[in-house]
């Protein structure tokens, strides 16, 4: 009996030791993995908890020197990929065409786009920027259909009308205007009238601008804060859009079958709503998102093209010549056609070069949804990844004398993912075509109808977090006779 007890005790003891060994083995493997992860994290400084290098990042952004003061010095110290901590998030900043390709094309597989909480709440949690997989494809399909080749034929004269009306209402009789403000108003009405097919009512622009003001604010809904005002403005917009959507729904249901008659985006979204593919909230959220995506980006692009033209009179003379030739080939009373816009090749080179130097969106954040092994480094799941256009646009490996303004460099084809003002991969800009026509057509009317000059030729550009000219880029104008 005593022998049996001793046997059981020794068995239990052996089992206990064995368990300890297994536990130790698991722990050691875990530690080794952690060590390995730690060892393979990209180089860089995480700074103090939460804050990290947020201050340096914002300071550089405000000076419009994000590349020169934040990205470039770290690239020199650590290489094309480095870690930092921004606004509480462990972040890896990646630079160069192969990084752009890797992270942008692996959207949904390795990373997903990541927006601040205030942006998601104000744009709406069901907008395209929060969609993945099939739902993302569905919304993109609707936007793409409204900007397909056949729709573009009709969009060009519509944009022309919008631009002419804008010049008549806001430029005629003035001797100076704020170019940034003017192009913001114009872009707003182009998105509503030409893309969505919604009439612009007075006060709408202000309501949307109040929402946009809060998109990057601290999401504290306390009376008086930017975010609080933005949330209130968003409620007003929801109310207004819901009545427009319901009216359109009635029209489409009554016309049964001829649902996409006008081919405009609102009709397509509402037709999709009737088919049960998307909800009313999704229609509202995506309209708000489109205005946000189009507004400051296109207006900043136009503003910077004008600044570059003012600084480079030879380029301006060539661009003007291109537009005078298009005018010469027009019959009296005719407006621009899609074919005419295809002849604006030099103008588009100027615009591309300007967006290379001054990308309206300098880059954006992604979040790793799995542990990512990239270039021998580990990017742990949950970390943010920031890709920047600067990383390739300002790199002499891709562009000779990258800081020079030289539209002719676009005569040569550019390798994929090198030139990325419109992003790339599944989230590449859905409004690229609209932005292109908006820029080309605006410049056509501006240079053929007005003499103009910058009031502050070296006006400061700041980023907060989208770039804008500090004084709104005022210009002197006088009509050409
Ligand atoms: C010069 C003007 C514009 C520039 C530089 C620009 C740039 C960009 C960039 C870089 C992205 C990708 C962001 C990312 O990867 O996180 C993007 C996405 C997007 N853009 Fe634009 N954009 C412009 C104009 C427009 C316009 C006019 C519209 C709409 C009418 C628009 C609609 C969108 C939408 C809906 C997305 C999100 C696509 C998605 O998530 O699938 N953009 N844009």
TrEMBL record:
Q: Which GO terms describe its biological process?
A: secondary metabolite biosynthetic process; sterol metabolic process
Q: Which residues cross the membrane?
A: 6-26
Q: Which GO terms describe its molecular function?
A: heme binding; iron ion binding; monooxygenase activity; oxidoreductase activity, acting on paired donors, with incorporation or reduction of molecular oxygen
The record's CDD domains line, in alphabetical order, gives: CYP90-like (cd11043)
Query: Which cofactor is recorded for it?
Result: heme
Kindly name one Pfam family recorded for this protein.
Answer: p450
Q: Where does heme bind?
A: 429
Alphabetized, the UniProt keywords read:
Heme, Iron, Membrane, Metal-binding, Monooxygenase, Oxidoreductase, Transmembrane, Transmembrane helix
Stated family: Belongs to the cytochrome P450 family.
Output this protein's name. Answer: Cytochrome P450
The organism of origin for this protein: Coptis chinensis
Taxon lineage: Eukaryota, Viridiplantae, Streptophyta, Embryophyta, Tracheophyta
């Amino acid at each position: 009996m005593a022998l049996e007890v001793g046997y059981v005790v020794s068995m239990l003891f052996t089992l206990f030791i064995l368990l300890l060994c297994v536990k130790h083995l698991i722990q050691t493997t875990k530690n080794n993995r952690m060590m390995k992860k730690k060892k393979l994290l990209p180089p860089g400084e995480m700074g103090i908890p939460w804050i990290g290098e947020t201050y340096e990042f914002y300071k550089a952004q405000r000076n419009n020197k994000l590349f020169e003061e934040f990205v470039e010095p770290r690239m020199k110290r650590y290489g094309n990929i480095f870690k930092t901590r921004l606004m509480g998030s462990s972040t890896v900043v990646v630079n160069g065409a192969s990084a752009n390709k890797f992270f942008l094309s692996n959207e949904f597989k390795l990373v997903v786009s990541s927006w601040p909480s205030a942006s998601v709440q104000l744009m709406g949690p069901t907008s395209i920027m929060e969609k993945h997989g099939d739902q993302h494809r569905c919304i993109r399909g609707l936007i793409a259909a409204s900007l397909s080749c056949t729709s573009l034929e009709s969009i060009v004269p519509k944009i022309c009308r919008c631009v002419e009306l804008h010049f008549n209402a806001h430029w005629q009789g003035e001797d100076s205007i704020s170019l940034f403000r003017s192009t913001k108003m114009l872009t707003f009405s182009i998105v509503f009238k030409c893309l969505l097919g919604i009439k612009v009512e007075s006060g709408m622009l202000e309501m949307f601008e109040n929402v946009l003001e809060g998109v990057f604010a601290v999401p504290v809904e306390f009376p008086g804060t930017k975010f609080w005002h933005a949330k209130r403005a968003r409620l007003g917009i929801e109310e207004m859009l819901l009545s427009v959507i319901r009216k359109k729904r009635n029209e489409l249901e009554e016309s049964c079958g001829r649902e996409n008659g006008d081919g405009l985006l609102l009709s397509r979204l509402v037709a999709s709503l009737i088919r049960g593919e998307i909800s009313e909230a999704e229609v509202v959220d995506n309209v708000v998102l489109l205005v946000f995506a189009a507004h400051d980006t296109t207006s900043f692009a136009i503003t910077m093209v004008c600044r570059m033209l003012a600084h480079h009179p030879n380029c301006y003379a060539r661009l003007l010549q291109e537009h005078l030739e298009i005018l010469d080939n027009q019959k009296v009373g005719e407006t621009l056609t899609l074919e005419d816009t295809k002849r604006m090749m030099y103008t588009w080179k100027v615009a591309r070069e300007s967006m290379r130097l001054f990308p309206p969106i300098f880059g954006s954040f992604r979040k790793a949804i799995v542990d990512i092994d990239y270039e021998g480094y580990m990017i742990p799941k949950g970390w943010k990844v920031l890709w920047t256009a600067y990383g390739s646009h300002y790199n002499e490996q891709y562009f000779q004398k990258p800081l020079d303004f030289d539209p002719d460099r676009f005569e040569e084809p550019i390798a994929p993912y090198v030139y990325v003002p419109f992003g790339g991969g599944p989230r590449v800009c859905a409004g690229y075509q609209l932005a292109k026509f908006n820029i080309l057509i605006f410049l056509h009317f501006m240079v053929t109808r007005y003499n103009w000059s910058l009031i502050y030729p070296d006006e400061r550009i700041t980023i907060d977090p989208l770039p804008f000219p500090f004084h709104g880029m005022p210009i002197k104008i006088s009509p050409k006779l």
